[in-house]
Amino acid sequence: MKLELREGVSAVDTEYGIVLLDQDSGEYWDLNPSAALVVRTLLGGSTPGRAAQALTDEYAVDADTASRDVEERLGGLREAGLVKG
Fold first, then answer.
1. DSSP H helical segments within the chain, as ranges?
2. Is 68 in contact with 52 (CB distance < 8 Å)?
3. Is residue 17 included in any domain, yes or no?
4. For the chain, how many structural domains are there in total?
5. pLDDT digit of tens for each residue in the chain (85 aa)?
6. Exposed/middle/buried for 48, CB within 10 Å: 0-12, 13-18, 19+?
7. CATH code of residue 62
């Protein structure tokens, strides 16, 4: 299942990473480059496993740490109500 932002949430690429804006509440989340890589990968239709692989390819991080980071990012997106499902 492809990760999708819920209606009313927009993503904007920045020089530093990505910003997610909840247009309903006015809150925003400024994601650093590694978090942005995870979010872009998941929004592009890839699996959490592929997002973890993208982290290990781009940064000096082992597979277990990358997998935990992806799961934590997904949990944070869900907890904040930024994504569908």
1. 33-43, 48-58, 63-79
2. no
3. yes
4. 1
5. 689 999 999 999 999 999 999 999 999 999 999 999 999 999 999 999 999 999 999 999 999 999 999 999 999 999 999 999 6
6. middle
7. 1.10.10
